[in-house]
Amino acid sequence: MSATRDFSQDRTFLIDMTRCTGCRACQVACKQWNQMKAEKTVFFTGEGYQNPPAMSEYTLTKVKFRDYEKNGHNQFAFYKEMCMHCNEPACVSVCPVSAFIKTPEGPVVYDTKRCIGCRFCMVACPFGVPKYQWSKALPLVVKCTGCYSRLKAGLKPACAKACPSAISYGSRTDMIQEAKRRLAARPDRYFNKIYGLEEAGGTSVLYLTEQPFDDLGFKHVTKRPLPSLTWAALRFVPGVFLTMGGSLAFISWLTHRKDRLRKEEEAKKSATIQPEEGE
Amino acid sequence: MSAIASIKQEIKGYHMFIKTLMLLVAAGVLAAAARFIFGLGTTTNLSDVYPWGLWISFDVVTSVPLAAGAFVLGAVVHCFHIKKLEPLVRPAIVTGFLGYSLVCIGLILDLGQPQRGWHVFAYPNLHSPMFEVALCVMSYTTVACLEFLSPVCEKFGFHIPLRLLRTIEVPLIVLGAAIATLHQSTIGTFFLIAVDKLHNLWYNPLLPMLFWISAVFTGLAIVIVEAIMVHRYLKQPDETELLATLTKIIPWFLGIYLFIKVYTLFFLSARPLFDRPGLTILFLMEVVLGIIIPLIMFMSKRIRTDSRWQLRAASMVVFFGLVLNRFNVSMFGLIQKDQKIYYPSFLESVVTVGIIAAHILFFALIARYFPIFEHHPEEVDYSIPDRFHRIEKHPVTEKTI
Ligand code: SF4
Ligand code: SF4
Ligand code: SF4
Fold it and tell me: What residues are paired with A102 via a beta bridge?
């Protein structure tokens, strides 16, 4: 992933958690649109009050509940978890069969027909997004598609459409501008950071919150685009191959030549001696 | 009918140990069948939190460097032309070939869609370390198989292919070493993407180089362990003296490895380093028991030349230095704070035990039926053949007369 393209027009979610009421309309809309099965869940198995406890093969997005104390009062914070649609996605770069694709419009989609099921994408994704169909004999990866099919049809993503208050959807530049405007207008209300602006080299999902992101369980993620980390090593591959092969070939040519020369020498000697002996 | 009877007869004559191995392999095959029938989710303890488990950590990430003896020794003997080590090459190639074949089996078991394995060629992604490793492992298995064909042809007296094989022997070994360098290091590259996941004790940008160096010294250590075991249990010649040459090479690589490891730890790794006591203990065990102590041992001449100490030091390198390192990087180091701990399921373990047993079993059987030990340099003509005619029984003796 050496060539970076322009991400400013990518379709981007701005999720303002201070405006989220925890209604989980997005969670339900996502499930309906993607026709995902319901999950049998047990309460209080996850990190908080949320249900189901985590994203899974049946749940592509989920609202996380966090309780905290503020001025002696118990408060709730909500956090919609979904694929971040990274600008330079780790999942795209590690997949050996290019099953993940970063579309020109922004969403990162997954081609079920290609995947060989190595699960490297799951190891690589810094946000822990791709999930696996552990219930199936020949499982596939599942993850939020940014509702690419709806986008193609000129519709908003199902979750953004269903959300009554917190999700804005538009070009990345516009969403960043809007987020900055809100931060500047109400500095008392917001924690001063846009999560997703720089995480993993920038993503197409941006968050604003009231609480520090660490406290809400947002993952700490490097600002460097992840593919550059492996590419830093992989780009040496042809060089290493040629150097290693070349030098070993040269060394063995040298050593074998020495051998051959010695043998020829010996052969010459015996050839000059033998006729004399024979006669 | 009589063929089956004679095979039965043959198997009856085997040692108890071999029979036990056969049972273990059979159990592994059954467990693998269960995995395909019931699916990964039900038969393994893998989950969304632990997408990679024992099969990746051992059957792939650890087995690949354990099979490195073939390429290291091949390069040492044929490229640097240290001919006296020749008797060790064939057993190492057999180990390499078996190791890689079993790695392929491990990978197929672990894939969710193994029937689509060929997609790697159909839709290659040059940016994926996994693509690189898949390609290298497949080509290396082919190369190792070709190298392994020599004793097979000798056994059945196929002279013309034998001539051919000997012609391409050196190019094959060079090719094998170059491919091995790539995938041994690229397995380290896998984990470079797991930034913020792999603990700082192991995560550093030189991981691929560390993986390659440790594969080199482990390859040599494995050759030592194997030669001594084979001498003890398969009544093969004692090679202590030859091994002493290898024990001279190992400390150099151990030393370089230790140096780079310490350097990366202090200058290239992110902090905090020692915030997780469990991981700190694992790290210290790996470095002290697997590198520093064997390094000191290999520096003393007495230990280098005594077969019992050779074995001890070499197996420490293999077990603590390598196996522990690979598990640390691919499993323990990836466990986040307050996470439920992964442990392999019964079936997963049976498969892995079966794979190890298969390796030992096939090695013992190949050693029994093919000329991999009786191959001594005095009887071999190293010159590249110029004609495709039958190889005489003792070409060298003929020449020296
Ligand atoms: S969040 Fe994970 S799955 Fe989504 S695009 Fe980024 S790396 Fe890929
Ligand atoms: S599991 Fe599938 S999508 Fe994920 S990296 Fe492997 S082949 Fe690609
Ligand atoms: S964008 Fe679509 S698939 Fe993704 S979370 Fe929203 S509704 Fe679900």
Answer: A108
Q: If you average pLDDT over residues A98-125, what whole number do you get? A: 95
Q: How far apart are CA B41 and CA B43, in angstroms?
A: 6
CA–centroid distance, A142 to ligand 1, in Å, is 12
Helix axes B207-233, B240-263, angle to 10 degrees: 160
Helices vs strands, H then E, count in chain B: 20, 0
* B112–A115 CB contact, under 8 Å: yes
Select from A57, A93, A114, A121 the residue to mutate for testing ligand 2; criterion: most ligand atoms less than 8 Å from CB.
A121
Chain B partners within 8 Å of A136 (Cβ): 39, 41
Residue A128 to residue A81: CA distance in whole angstroms: 10
**Bond before B237 cis per omega within 30 degrees:** no
Which among B356, B88, B366 is positioned nearest to B227, based on CA atoms? B88
Cα angle at B79 between B74 and B81, to 5 degrees? 95
* Residues 6 or more apart in contact with residue B95 via CB below 8 angstroms: B67, B69, B70, B222, B223, B226, B359, B363
Contacts of B40 in chain A (CB under 8 A): 134, 139
Half-sphere exposure of A262 (CA within 13 A, CB side): 8
Ligand nearest to the backbone CA of A156: 3
Q: What count of CB pairs under 8 Å joins A to B?
A: 198
Residue B265 pLDDT > 50, yes or no? yes
B189 touching A, CB under 8 A? yes
B143-170 average pLDDT score: 83
Whether the link from the prior residue into B272 is cis, omega within 30° of 0, is yes
Residue A194 tokens read as: 């846009």
Which tokens go with B391?
């190889």
| Structure tokens that stand for B87 in this block | 């008797």
Q: What is the pTM of this model?
A: 0.89
* Phi and psi based region of residue A38 (left: phi greater than 0; alpha: psi -120 to 50; beta: remaining): beta
Query: Does B378 reach chain A within 8 Å, measured CB to CB?
Result: no
Which pLDDT belongs to residue B111? 92
| Separation between Cα atoms, residue B286 and residue B323, nearest integer Å | 9
Distance CA(B57)–CA(B320), nearest Å, equals 15
Question: Is the confidence metric ipTM above 0.90 for this complex?
Answer: no
Angle between helices B169-190 and A237-278 (to 10 degrees): 160
Q: What phi, psi does B57 have (nearest 5°)?
A: -65, -45
Rounded average pLDDT over B49-63: 92
Res A145: pLDDT: 95
Q: What is the whole-number distance in angstroms between the Cα of residue A85 and the centre of ligand 2?
A: 16
Q: Give the C-alpha separation, B101 to B157, whole Å.
A: 25
Set of chain A residues whose Cβ sits within 8 Å of the Cβ of B125:
93, 95-98
Contact A140, B113 (CB under 8 A): yes
Q: With CB atoms and an 8 Å threshold, state whether B112 touches A119.
A: yes
The token pair that represents B18 in the structure block: 């071999």
Which structure tokens are listed for B343? 């442990």
Q: Please report residues of B whose CB lies closer than 8 A to that of A134.
A: 39-41, 46-48
User: Minimal Cα distance from A227: which residue of B?
Assistant: B193
Kindly list the distances between the CA atom of residue A27 and the CA atoms of A52, B224, B383, in Å, as whole numbers in the listed order.
10, 59, 73
**Alpha-helix runs per DSSP H in chain A:** 25-33, 90-94, 120-124, 148-152, 158-162, 172-185, 227-234, 237-278
- Of residues B166, B116, B107, B161, the one with CA closest to residue B137: B107
Kindly give the residue spans of alpha helices, DSSP state H, lying in B56-168: 63-66, 69-74, 86-110, 119-122, 129-156, 159-167
